[in-house]
Amino acid sequence: MEAQAFAIDGERTARVTRTTKETDIQxxxxxxxxxxxxxxxxxxxxxxxxxxxxxxxxxxxxVRAVGDLAVDAHHTVEDTGIxxxxxxxxxxxxxxxIVRFGTSFVPMDETLVQASLDISGRGQxxxxxxxxxxxxxxxxxxxxxxxxxxxxxNAGITLHVRELTGENAHHIVEATFKAVGRxxxxxxxxxxxxxxxxxxxxxxx
Length: 205
Fold this sequence. Notes:
By secondary structure, the chain is of the alpha+beta class. It has helices at residues 44-57, 74-92, 143-155, 169-188, and strands at 13-19, 23-30, 37-40, 60-67, 101-108, 111-118, 124-128, 135-136, 139-140, 158-165. The strands form three sheets. A four-stranded mixed sheet has the order 1-2-4-3, with helices on one face. It has a four-stranded mixed sheet with strand order 5-6-10-7, covered by helices on one side.
């Protein structure tokens, strides 16, 4: 973890804090960043995944999470998805001028994962990822889906994730986080050709 000062600055930024009896989570994000991250959730593999999400999505991302890890990592991972989704929704503001849609294919050795998303205002996840159920350090691979359910729901995005091929659990989960980060980078991009306009025939997102 970096010791130097770490600031989240920019126009499309957000800071969200959520405290429950199970977790205390603080997240700051800059959608127009350079992929700088500072992550500390107490779950090392999950830190690695959030770092990959931020770096490949080109989001400046600061995540601080304290959870009931003596029980397991479930609450920490799921609640981080909730707060990150809320932070993305807040940073998007009125969504005017955004591209709205994004798709990314990410290979990682034998694995290939596709993520496609729509910043639709209708939070939902469609997840066709056949990841082996195992522990990666203290991270249960089944928690990846729980994270993306919470994230998509709270960000208000329709998210499709599909594993096209894969065997190694680490590769599959990591390719998934990278693919979602890159797809979100494309979808949140501001297109100057539609500056000030909402990319919707309904006039609302």
